[in-house]
Automatic annotation (TrEMBL):
<feature type="domain" description="AMP-binding enzyme C-terminal">
    <location>
        <begin position="530"/>
        <end position="608"/>
    </location>
</feature>
<dbReference type="InterPro" id="IPR045851">
    <property type="entry name" value="AMP-bd_C_sf"/>
</dbReference>
<dbReference type="Pfam" id="PF16177">
    <property type="entry name" value="ACAS_N"/>
</dbReference>
<feature type="binding site">
    <location>
        <position position="522"/>
    </location>
    <ligand>
        <name>CoA</name>
    </ligand>
</feature>
<feature type="binding site">
    <location>
        <begin position="386"/>
        <end position="388"/>
    </location>
    <ligand>
        <name>ATP</name>
    </ligand>
</feature>
<dbReference type="Pfam" id="PF00501">
    <property type="entry name" value="AMP-binding"/>
</dbReference>
<keyword id="KW-0436">Ligase</keyword>
<dbReference type="InterPro" id="IPR020845">
    <property type="entry name" value="AMP-binding_CS"/>
</dbReference>
<protein>
    <recommendedName>
        <fullName>Acetyl-coenzyme A synthetase</fullName>
        <ecNumber>6.2.1.1</ecNumber>
    </recommendedName>
</protein>
<feature type="binding site">
    <location>
        <position position="310"/>
    </location>
    <ligand>
        <name>CoA</name>
    </ligand>
</feature>
<dbReference type="GO" id="GO:0005524">
    <property type="term" value="F:ATP binding"/>
</dbReference>
<comment type="function">
    <text>Catalyzes the conversion of acetate into acetyl-CoA (AcCoA), an essential intermediate at the junction of anabolic and catabolic pathways. AcsA undergoes a two-step reaction. In the first half reaction, AcsA combines acetate with ATP to form acetyl-adenylate (AcAMP) intermediate. In the second half reaction, it can then transfer the acetyl group from AcAMP to the sulfhydryl group of CoA, forming the product AcCoA.</text>
</comment>
<feature type="binding site">
    <location>
        <position position="525"/>
    </location>
    <ligand>
        <name>ATP</name>
    </ligand>
</feature>
<feature type="binding site">
    <location>
        <begin position="410"/>
        <end position="415"/>
    </location>
    <ligand>
        <name>ATP</name>
    </ligand>
</feature>
<keyword id="KW-0460">Magnesium</keyword>
<feature type="binding site">
    <location>
        <position position="514"/>
    </location>
    <ligand>
        <name>ATP</name>
    </ligand>
</feature>
<feature type="binding site">
    <location>
        <position position="499"/>
    </location>
    <ligand>
        <name>ATP</name>
    </ligand>
</feature>
Length: 645
């Protein structure tokens, strides 16, 4: 076990100026602990505009089915738009959109309200009513957020399906949610090419057996597509001619806001259901406490795709409900050049940047001379999400991107949790590279052993959440049994997150990877994350992924896949050096049996490494389903390099 105390890895104190101006100070924890329900009620009344106040804060009479802010009425889109315009901030920029080919569009809050109103009127004309579902299959363009908000405005739930998913994935999600309308585009731009989207919708609906009545099509690329008579309508015909006035209704706190499908370990994807009042409360609280948002001066940039939960909570709902200006970028970080992100930060003077560790490690590999060419001095806070961030990548992010002045918030949460759960509060504490540190105020997490005992030993255990929280999932769409079984059956009345974690001597939380990624070598529990961090800390290595492969003698053996930095040779000596390094750094038991040097790692578009596929390679099996990879050709490249090594 590596030493992870503050003394060993170092801690980084926030600048005095940051602390002085911070929204939330250290005393917040105590206040929240004293009475977490009163704490959340207070936050909700402060941050959300309720049309009718709620009564009971939490109804937990039928666990695990929670109701928050019972009886309250609100409109989520009103909270994201109208209230800012009413408060006199209609001229503030809501979205700075940057298209991959270099086109840009700006929407003020007043303009965005008009666009959302037009879309809400169009959807109403198409028969969409409160309680219906609308599927959204769009690239990262403003119309995606406009569509989501139009649904919210009508009290209809959206189901955003990531634009990189296949027609089969789209089809099963449309059927499961019984969507009435699909909103899509002709295509999108990715790596300078116009890729198509609409044909996937046509294929998904080709059997004529879905509930879809209308397909609304945004023209993005202008490529040739088929329009089906009586079913398909152009956005620019329908929406552009609709009235920009729309009076919104107010809905129950527990009215469904969205369904977002997330893959399970087995079987079909789970439709994670989120509702309105609790979700908005916790998303807004995290904007205030974790991102320290200052709506009048910040320029926020969350680089996630709206197709995954980070894009829901921190591209659409969080920033807009907070009333801040934000950046939305359509494309990839290396188009047309490897400095694109930094050019965007400079152009819009971004103050807060929120990205995935895999992006940071990619930038490290490309070299710090690229970001150094740009003026990044507007940045004041950095965030990380999606996977554990290795201390090495954390330090690089802090030094090269943050100029040693920006605190980094490493935010742990899930599609299921809706908003941040574990993250340092940047104005309240020093940050520690590689650790998410502690749960945010009002949230109660624990690390338990296999039997549910707390505390788990120094090797770590399983992360659980003890008390209900406002933005918790309300269930799995149409499958209450699976909801109970997946999250609430392992330990009584406790949410089981599926992540391995441990607390260090300072009480700070370190993530060890998903429970299925934790390895067992000769009876020792080893974390993929820890060994990957050790590999990435070696100067030869840019990126690393580790899996446990079945092994006759030790049960499992550690197998590493690494991408080396430019100039390092792919030789047996390099691999041996890396194996030795881990053995010395963590201990002989963690020394990988094999290290393969590869040119790519299999990653989803949300930046998660698909270790399952690497495990197939390590165990010499045929590689399993790779349909959710950002680039499905990488598995061939990996198999080729492994065959050579
Ligand atoms: C927001 C998001 C959830 C899983 C989660 C965990 C991993 C996310 C993390 C992290 C360590 C962090 N994860 N953030 N692990 N440190 N800061 O990613 O949602 O796509 O549902 O994934 O991602 O394993 O259980 P989702």
């Amino acid at each position: 076990m590596t030493d992870s105390t503050a003394e060993h890895v170092g801690v980084y104190a926030p600048p005095a100026e940051f602390v002085a101006g911070a929204n939330v100070k250290a005393d917040e924890y105590e206040r929240a602990d004293a009475d977490y329900l009163s704490f959340w009620a207070e936050q909700s009344r402060e941050l959300v505009d309720w049309n009718e106040d709620f009564g009971e804060v939490l109804d937990w009479s039928n666990p695990p089915f929670a109701q928050w802010f019972v009886g309250g009425k609100l409109n989520v889109a009103y909270n994201c738009l109208d209230r800012h315009v009413i408060a006199g901030n209609g001229d503030r920029v809501a979205i700075n959109f940057e298209g991959e080919p270099g086109d840009s569009r700006t929407f003020t809050y007043a303009q965005l309200l008009a666009e959302v109103s037009k879309t809400a009127n169009t959807l109403t004309d198409l028969g969409v009513r409160a309680g219906d579902r609308v599927a959204i299959y769009l690239p990262m363009i403003p119309e995606t957020m406009i569509s989501m908000l139009a649904c919210a405005r009508l009290g209809a739930a959206h189901s955003v399906v990531f634009g990189g998913f296949s027609s089969d994935a789209l089809r099963s999600r449309i059927i499961d949610a019984e969507a009435r309308v699909v909103i899509t585009a002709d295509g999108s731009y990715r790596r300078t090419k116009a890729t198509s989207l609409k044909p996937a919708v046509d294929a998904a609906l080709s059997h004529g057996d879905t509930s879809v009545e209308t397909v609304l099509v945004v023209r993005r690329t202008g490529q040739d597509i088929d329009m089906v008579d009586g079913r398909d309508q152009w956005w620019h015909d329908a929406v552009e001619t609709a009235s920009p006035e729309h009076e919104c209704e107010f809905f129950d706190s527990e009215n469904p806001l969205f369904i977002l499908y997330t893959s399970g370990t087995t079987g079909k994807p789970k439709g994670i259901l989120h509702t309105s009042g609790g979700y908005l409360t916790q998303v807004l609280y995290s904007m205030k406490a974790v991102f320290d948002i200052k709506p009048e001066s910040d320029v926020f940039w969350c680089t996630a795709d709206v197709g995954w939960v980070t894009g829901h909570s921190y591209v659409t709902y969080g920033p807009l409900a907070a009333g801040v200006s934000q950046i939305v970028y359509e494309g990839t970080p290396d188009t047309p050049h490897q400095g694109r992100w930094w050019e965007i930060v400079e152009k819009y003077k971004a103050t807060i940047l929120y990205a995935a560790p895999t992006a940071i490690r990619t930038f490290m590999k490309w070299g710090e001379e690229i970001p150094e060419k740009y003026d990044l001095s507007s940045l004041r806070l950095l965030g990380s999400v999606g996977e554990p961030i290795n201390p090495e990548a954390w330090r690089w992010y802090h030094r090269v991107i943050g100029g040693e002045r920006c605190p980094i918030v490493d935010t742990w949460w899930q599609t299921e949790t809706g908003a941040h759960m574990i993250a340092p509060l940047p104005g309240a504490m020093s940050t520690k590279p590689g650790s998410s540190q502690r749960s945010i105020p009002g949230i109660s997490v624990d690390v338990v052993d296999d039997e549910g005992n707390s505390p788990a030993g120094p090797e770590g255990g399983l992360l659980v959440i003890r008390q209900p929280w406002p933005s918790m999932l309300r269930g799995i769409w149409k499958d209450p049994e699976r909801f109970k079984e997946t999250y609430w059956s392992r330990f009584e009345d406790t949410y089981f997150a599926g992540d391995g974690a441990r607390r260090d001597e300072d009480g700070d939380i370190w993530f060890l990877g998903r429970v299925d990624d934790v390895m067992n070598v000769s009876g020792h529990r080893l974390s993929t994350t820890e060994i990957e961090s050790s590999l990435v800390a070696h100067p030869y290595v840019a990126e690393a992924a580790v899996v446990g492969a079945a092994d006759e003698t030790s049960g499992q053996a550690v197998v590493g896949f690494v991408i080396v930095v430019d100039g390092v040779e792919n030789t047996a000596e390099t691999a041996a050096e890396l194996r030795q390094h881990v053995g010395k750094d963590i201990g002989p038991i963690a020394k990988p049996k094999q290290v393969h040097i590869v040119s790519e790692l299999p990653k989803t578009r949300s930046g998660k490494i698909m270790r399952r596929l690497l495990k197939d390679v390590a165990e010499h099996r045929e590689v399993g389903d790779s349909s959710t990879l950002a680039d499905s050709s990488v598995m061939d490249l990996i198999e080729e390099s492994v065959a050579k090594s």
